[in-house]
Amino acid sequence: MSNLDQIAKLAGFSKATVSRVLNQSPHVSHETRTKILKIMQELDYVPNRNAISLSKGQTLQIGIITSTINEIVLAFLDSFVEVAGQYEFQTIIYTSGEDKKKELQAFEDLKRKRVDALVIISCVNDTDFLSTYCKYGPIVSWQRMEHTDIRSVAMDQYEGYMLALKHLIQKGYTRISNAFGRPSSINTHSRQRAYEQIMSEHNLPVLQHWNHSSIYNIRDGEQVVRDLLQRREEFPEAILCANDYVAVGILCEARRQRLNVPEDLAIVGFDNTELAHTMGITTIQNPIMAQAQNAFFMLSPQLIGRQMELHSLEYCLIERTTT
Amino acid sequence: MSNLDQIAKLAGFSKATVSRVLNQSPHVSHETRTKILKIMQELDYVPNRNAISLSKGQTLQIGIITSTINEIVLAFLDSFVEVAGQYEFQTIIYTSGEDKKKELQAFEDLKRKRVDALVIISCVNDTDFLSTYCKYGPIVSWQRMEHTDIRSVAMDQYEGYMLALKHLIQKGYTRISNAFGRPSSINTHSRQRAYEQIMSEHNLPVLQHWNHSSIYNIRDGEQVVRDLLQRREEFPEAILCANDYVAVGILCEARRQRLNVPEDLAIVGFDNTELAHTMGITTIQNPIMAQAQNAFFMLSPQLIGRQMELHSLEYCLIERTTT
DNA sequence: TTGAAAGCGTTACCAA
DNA sequence: TTGGTAACGCTTTCAA
């Protein structure tokens, strides 16, 4: 493998000049440049990334942290990789599996300059603690955060959930249940707030066993239906789901149990993923791609010294066949 | 940010000794070690990754190349990140979007020592050309490859497809159609070979318009059903799919078109993903996780100087409700 | 057990 | 427009 020194010697110039050619400096004569470029080509030379990173103090790598990669995360991840790539940044995945120690490695990697910035999709460490890492580089979060200086790119789900609730009530459903995600998350709190508010406003019944938590995926959704069926006489008319995948699970299991959707049970998903479209599930359109792009845009002032305009975000309801 | 030099000076030792502490060298007195460790702690010191990578000539990063991240890729990616992480390796995603130039960047990054190794999930460049990069580091592929020294971790899909075909024939289906993936891929050729062989062996009909190519996802699957319905009188009894997602699309669209599954149309997926289970789709179990682990194991001799035993791979058929 | 010094391969500042 | 040289922060070899 050839290096700058060899190129310089062969060309009869100094390393400095070769470096200038590499960095498209205007202060190189045309002649010199062509000569050096020719030699680089002959030697099949490419600069060593580690040396550049060390010297510049910048790696052009961004870490992205998630407890696990599922289809919801995928939509965000995919969009983020795409937009970061447009600005020459690469993306490194850190999956924690909910392990605090493992998750912390990503933050340590910011400190040790392996990555220039960090994007949190989900995290389990204390956010106040995590925000002490902000001094090592910019950090943004998809997951909503409180009491920290880590900015979040997500929207308050209160609005979106409200949309779904109003839709159900307007359609005449009154016995409304929920399949929430992480119990302690801000999203879940927002959703609960919306639910409680509207149910009491309209004087609608709320049964304890209608509200499930820690429901994340298809299998969890299937289980919810089986749980609800335990008390058939108190069966809800509609269910709001943590995400579309939960809705898929509920829909499939409901069919398996000979329930008619939406007559026996109406279902509303969340996110408007491809699958919700395919299976005809009414859902809330969550602009994930726009949020992923915003995540990069929020990092960009510190990364590339450029302020980018953020996409404006808005929920909307997509009515399909499950309500 | 503190560095080795500062630690050394404060501790009253040389950089070499501090470095030895960092690398758990046995040639440091207990006293010295504790003293140095204490100072590191006080200064909140962590070594700079770029400096280490430059000095050692190793980055502990592995690049993984795919044209796009979809759910099938996800299963592989997720498992690979997991196993690589166990050996302290991080994973960098390169999505090419089928763009040869963009894809090549990953290989250039191997050359410029940004990554220590490469895993190809799918690629569009000429494989003979790509294999010239093998001299810069180990490369393995999930996608099957021919005529190169890039080893593949995938199985010949002939076997798996045969399993599905025999199952259908045994169940009495005779008008069998296909939804293939990338037309030029080795997988597709294997599948076609299996199909042609068994159909001629059993003297079964093969209609031109039964065989679709470039069918990759749910939407493509939906379209296949609409296409087939164009000629209702020549409608097949069964369809084999490129993957489970295609099968999902076909199943959903079939229902929408009031076709009964499996009476009017039997469906067989491929891969046995979570979704196939949920929707009760008969499919071929493809040990993706084992293949992802094998991918790392095949790199490991050159990466960590250790030969690992590969998982043995085997297909099997999972019968559910769509056949 | 410790230290001095030469790498690793760039960039960037100051002169010329 | 060019060159010399000091960073960048660590590892590793050779001596002591």
From TrEMBL, chains A, B:
- Entry-linked PROSITE patterns: HTH_LACI_2
Q: Which InterPro entries does this UniProt record tie to the protein?
A: HTH_LacI, LacI/GalR-like_sensor, Lambda_DNA-bd_dom_sf, Peripla_BP_I
SMART domains in alphabetical order: HTH_LACI (SM00354)
HTH lacI-type domain location: 2-56
Which GO-annotated molecular functions does the record name?
DNA binding
Q: Which domain of life is it from?
A: Bacteria
Cross-referenced Pfam families, in alphabetical order?
A: LacI, Peripla_BP_3
Q: Does the keyword Transmembrane helix apply?
A: no
Q: Which UniProt keywords apply?
A: DNA-binding, Transcription, Transcription regulation
Q: What is this protein called?
A: DNA-binding LacI/PurR family transcriptional regulator
Protein species of origin = Paenibacillus peoriae
Q: What is the lineage of its organism?
A: Bacteria, Bacillati, Bacillota, Bacilli, Bacillales
